[in-house]
Amino acid sequence: MAVIVVGTEATIQSPTAEGQFMQLIEYFQGLENIGGNITSYFSGNYDSDALIFNGDFIVPVLFDGTNMAFVGKTDGFLTGSFSPGTGGLFTATTALNYFIQVISHIIRWQNDLAKNPQKLENLTCTLDLNKRTLTGRFSLPFTRANSDTGIVITPKEYLFT
User: Fold this and answer.
1) Which residue range(s) make up the domain with 84?
2) What is the number of other CB atoms lying within 10 angstroms of the CB of residue 31?
3) Is residue 12 situated within a structural domain?
4) Which residue, 28, 34, 4, 44, is CA-closest to 94?
5) What residues contact 61, with CB distance under 8 A and at least 6 apart?
6) What is the pLDDT of residues 120-159, one digit of tens each?
7) Domains in the chain: how many in total?
Protein backbone atom coordinates (compact mmCIF):
# COMPACT_ATOMS: atom_id res chain seq x y z
CA MET A 1 0.00 0.00 0.00
CA ALA A 2 1.00 3.58 -0.52
CA VAL A 3 1.29 4.31 3.21
CA ILE A 4 1.00 8.00 4.08
CA VAL A 5 0.94 10.18 7.18
CA VAL A 6 -2.66 11.12 8.00
CA GLY A 7 -3.36 14.50 9.57
CA THR A 8 -4.48 14.47 13.19
CA GLU A 9 -8.28 14.95 13.31
CA ALA A 10 -8.49 14.89 9.48
CA THR A 11 -11.85 14.26 7.82
CA ILE A 12 -10.31 11.53 5.63
CA GLN A 13 -8.60 8.95 7.85
CA SER A 14 -7.29 6.10 5.67
CA PRO A 15 -3.56 5.42 6.20
CA THR A 16 -2.99 4.76 2.47
CA ALA A 17 -3.25 7.00 -0.59
CA GLU A 18 -5.55 4.47 -2.28
CA GLY A 19 -7.80 4.43 0.78
CA GLN A 20 -7.81 8.22 0.94
CA PHE A 21 -8.92 8.28 -2.70
CA MET A 22 -11.77 5.81 -2.05
CA GLN A 23 -12.91 7.74 1.02
CA LEU A 24 -12.85 11.01 -0.94
CA ILE A 25 -15.06 9.56 -3.68
CA GLU A 26 -17.50 8.44 -0.96
CA TYR A 27 -17.26 11.86 0.72
CA PHE A 28 -18.08 13.71 -2.50
CA GLN A 29 -20.87 11.31 -3.47
CA GLY A 30 -22.41 11.95 -0.06
CA LEU A 31 -22.29 15.70 -0.68
CA GLU A 32 -23.85 15.23 -4.10
CA ASN A 33 -26.85 13.55 -2.46
CA ILE A 34 -27.52 16.43 -0.06
CA GLY A 35 -29.93 19.25 -0.70
CA GLY A 36 -31.21 18.37 -4.16
CA ASN A 37 -27.88 18.82 -5.93
CA ILE A 38 -28.36 18.22 -9.67
CA THR A 39 -24.71 18.08 -10.74
CA SER A 40 -22.82 14.79 -10.59
CA TYR A 41 -19.05 15.20 -10.47
CA PHE A 42 -18.25 11.75 -9.08
CA SER A 43 -19.34 8.25 -9.96
CA GLY A 44 -18.17 5.24 -8.00
CA ASN A 45 -19.49 1.69 -7.88
CA TYR A 46 -18.44 -1.36 -5.92
CA ASP A 47 -18.52 -4.56 -7.96
CA SER A 48 -18.84 -7.16 -5.21
CA ASP A 49 -18.27 -10.06 -7.62
CA ALA A 50 -15.03 -8.78 -9.17
CA LEU A 51 -14.00 -6.87 -6.00
CA ILE A 52 -13.33 -3.71 -8.02
CA PHE A 53 -14.28 -0.14 -7.09
CA ASN A 54 -14.62 1.70 -10.39
CA GLY A 55 -15.95 4.96 -11.68
CA ASP A 56 -15.02 8.37 -12.96
CA PHE A 57 -14.94 12.02 -12.02
CA ILE A 58 -14.89 15.43 -13.63
CA VAL A 59 -14.05 18.45 -11.49
CA PRO A 60 -13.62 22.15 -12.31
CA VAL A 61 -10.13 23.64 -12.02
CA LEU A 62 -8.55 27.09 -12.22
CA PHE A 63 -5.04 28.20 -12.99
CA ASP A 64 -3.19 29.41 -9.92
CA GLY A 65 -1.61 32.72 -10.87
CA THR A 66 0.44 33.08 -14.05
CA ASN A 67 2.11 29.67 -14.06
CA MET A 68 0.61 26.35 -15.17
CA ALA A 69 -0.21 25.16 -11.66
CA PHE A 70 -3.90 24.50 -11.14
CA VAL A 71 -6.25 24.27 -8.21
CA GLY A 72 -9.83 23.12 -7.80
CA LYS A 73 -12.50 25.69 -8.66
CA THR A 74 -14.37 25.67 -5.38
CA ASP A 75 -16.75 28.55 -6.14
CA GLY A 76 -20.14 26.88 -6.61
CA PHE A 77 -18.64 23.43 -6.04
CA LEU A 78 -19.87 20.93 -3.45
CA THR A 79 -19.12 22.09 0.09
CA GLY A 80 -19.22 20.28 3.38
CA SER A 81 -17.38 20.09 6.65
CA PHE A 82 -13.77 19.21 5.81
CA SER A 83 -10.37 19.35 7.49
CA PRO A 84 -6.97 18.05 6.36
CA GLY A 85 -6.02 17.81 10.01
CA THR A 86 -2.54 18.75 11.16
CA GLY A 87 0.80 17.12 10.40
CA GLY A 88 -0.38 14.99 7.48
CA LEU A 89 1.08 14.53 3.99
CA PHE A 90 -1.89 16.20 2.28
CA THR A 91 -2.51 19.72 3.52
CA ALA A 92 -5.04 21.41 1.22
CA THR A 93 -7.78 23.08 3.25
CA THR A 94 -10.59 22.45 0.74
CA ALA A 95 -11.78 18.94 -0.06
CA LEU A 96 -11.38 19.50 -3.81
CA ASN A 97 -7.75 20.63 -3.56
CA TYR A 98 -7.06 17.81 -1.11
CA PHE A 99 -8.52 15.41 -3.71
CA ILE A 100 -6.17 16.86 -6.35
CA GLN A 101 -3.20 16.36 -4.00
CA VAL A 102 -4.20 12.72 -3.41
CA ILE A 103 -4.63 11.86 -7.09
CA SER A 104 -1.38 13.65 -8.00
CA HIS A 105 0.41 11.56 -5.37
CA ILE A 106 -1.12 8.30 -6.63
CA ILE A 107 -0.29 9.03 -10.27
CA ARG A 108 3.26 10.05 -9.37
CA TRP A 109 3.67 6.70 -7.57
CA GLN A 110 2.05 4.79 -10.45
CA ASN A 111 4.74 6.24 -12.72
CA ASP A 112 7.55 5.08 -10.40
CA LEU A 113 8.55 1.49 -11.25
CA ALA A 114 9.98 0.95 -7.77
CA LYS A 115 6.56 1.72 -6.28
CA ASN A 116 4.50 0.16 -9.08
CA PRO A 117 6.50 -2.77 -10.51
CA GLN A 118 3.38 -4.23 -12.16
CA LYS A 119 2.95 -0.97 -14.15
CA LEU A 120 -0.74 -0.76 -13.19
CA GLU A 121 -2.73 2.34 -14.09
CA ASN A 122 -5.70 1.98 -11.77
CA LEU A 123 -6.22 5.75 -11.84
CA THR A 124 -5.90 7.91 -14.95
CA CYS A 125 -6.48 11.66 -15.30
CA THR A 126 -6.64 14.25 -18.04
CA LEU A 127 -6.44 18.00 -17.60
CA ASP A 128 -8.44 19.88 -20.26
CA LEU A 129 -7.04 23.42 -20.44
CA ASN A 130 -9.86 24.68 -22.64
CA LYS A 131 -12.74 23.37 -20.55
CA ARG A 132 -10.85 23.89 -17.28
CA THR A 133 -11.67 20.42 -16.05
CA LEU A 134 -9.79 17.52 -14.56
CA THR A 135 -11.35 14.22 -15.60
CA GLY A 136 -10.40 10.76 -14.51
CA ARG A 137 -11.29 7.10 -14.40
CA PHE A 138 -10.44 4.61 -11.72
CA SER A 139 -10.58 0.88 -11.21
CA LEU A 140 -9.28 -0.04 -7.78
CA PRO A 141 -9.25 -3.63 -6.49
CA PHE A 142 -10.41 -4.04 -2.90
CA THR A 143 -10.79 -6.68 -0.23
CA ARG A 144 -13.88 -7.27 1.83
CA ALA A 145 -13.95 -8.70 5.35
CA ASN A 146 -16.53 -9.12 8.08
CA SER A 147 -16.05 -7.32 11.38
CA ASP A 148 -18.03 -6.78 14.59
CA THR A 149 -19.42 -3.55 13.12
CA GLY A 150 -20.22 -4.85 9.63
CA ILE A 151 -18.33 -5.25 6.38
CA VAL A 152 -14.93 -3.59 6.02
CA ILE A 153 -13.78 -2.63 2.52
CA THR A 154 -10.06 -1.95 2.08
CA PRO A 155 -8.18 -1.05 -1.12
CA LYS A 156 -5.95 -3.87 -2.32
CA GLU A 157 -2.20 -3.31 -2.41
CA TYR A 158 -0.78 -2.20 -5.74
CA LEU A 159 1.53 0.69 -4.86
CA PHE A 160 4.46 0.10 -2.53
CA THR A 161 6.02 2.55 -0.08
Assistant:
1) 17-155
2) 19
3) no
4) 28
5) 70, 71, 72, 73, 100, 127, 132, 133, 134
6) 999 999 999 889 899 999 999 999 999 999 999 999 989 9
7) 1
